Amino acid sequence: MRVVFLSPTYPPEMRQFTRGLAEVGAEVLGVGDGTPDAELRRYLTDYLQVPSILDEEEVIARVHGWLRGRTVDRVLANWEPLVIVAARLRERFGLPGMSVDTVRGFRDKQLMKERVAAAGLRVPHSRRVRSVKDAWAAVEHTGYPAIIKPISGAGSADTYKVESAAELERVLPLLRHVAEASCEEFIDGEEYTYDTVCVDGAPLYESVTRYLPNALEMRSIEWVSPIMLSVRDLSQPHVTGGIELGRKVLTALGMGDGMTHMEWFRKRDGEVVFGEIACRPGGACIVDQINYTSDIDLFREWARVATLRRFEASTERKYNVAVVFKRAQGDGRITNIVGLRDYMARHGQHVVEETLLRPGTPRRDWKNTLLSDGYLVVRHPDWGSAIEMAFAAATDIKLYAS
Ligand SMILES: Nc1ncnc2c1ncn2[C@@H]1O[C@H](COP(=O)(O)OP(=O)(O)OP(=O)(O)O)[C@@H](O)[C@H]1O
Ligand SMILES: [Mg+2]
Hints:
Helices cover about 35% and strands about 25% of the residues. The chain is of the alpha+beta class.
């Protein structure tokens, strides 16, 4: 099987998906604007370097010319900004996979909510807005607090919670560069993901992760140590409603083969509300977290599903896995890590990864990357113990910079 895989060099986990494709026996034709290093080259049969992978027309034209005289079986992309161009290429070459229209349902947040709502599922009340005037009209309808965010956003960029007209007034100029936004009812509740690996929209592997605090707070409050905690036991009552919702969303949007990443809320009264969904794997360590949850290699398993439409890994869930991101106090370079030694003495046997930046290293921009100044991954079969160890990593380990 010959597969065109878009952007094998970026984001970093795309290298793992490329490896997966090669390991299940596919010939991988990479297309991207980065330069693959020697290791990545080993997984690639050929590579087309384009000036900008985000320039859809240019990418389509160049890939078309490059493939002349060759047959390909799949065009795949696992990075959000490329899912539409992958679908356009599939349509151009008459290849199997999700159509442009289907993929738009996973990419356009307003269309997505309309399609999910049409299936009788609960979504936040929302409107598409294209101007300042639209935004004022929309909050009349949603009330406060409201959320305003780009129609095709990622990483919580340009996403704001507004509590009042005064706040909306302040935020609107910040959204001037966003052509289309969604203005929606603010859902007050716990936030979770629902991640899957699907064949023909049927989830052959499912996973749920709790965000602590909610994603928007993780991205906007510097002093917190954000935690992502995968749920081992999916029959726990606080997650079953979200899983049921997720399965119906997959059907409503016409999911095909591949991975999905959905976000949903559970309100205090137990009501479950859809947030958003993407037809690609979650970013920021989610796939690693799932791998640690079941001790499997989902990078390879995704590749098997995307090419051979078979899932062969174990679906057993062995651990609750917490990823705890740390942010140093102060600016500049890391000077000191406090509490790590004690933490490792107490919980070290449950820590599977520790990537905290060492003294001397410049701090990362926490606004740009959830990876922040490094993270710990700790896992335990018991939910209560996993939460306790995650919270201990959040509060007892401190990084300083100056
Ligand atoms: N209607 C809402 N009610 C409450 N919180 C919301 C709502 N919409 C968005 N949020 C918060 O803002 C975050 C970012 O919004 P959303 O997931 O739609 O954007 P994104 O930029 O695609 O996110 P991601 O970080 O997953 O790429 C959500 O995870 C959630 O915490
Ligand atoms: Mg999101």
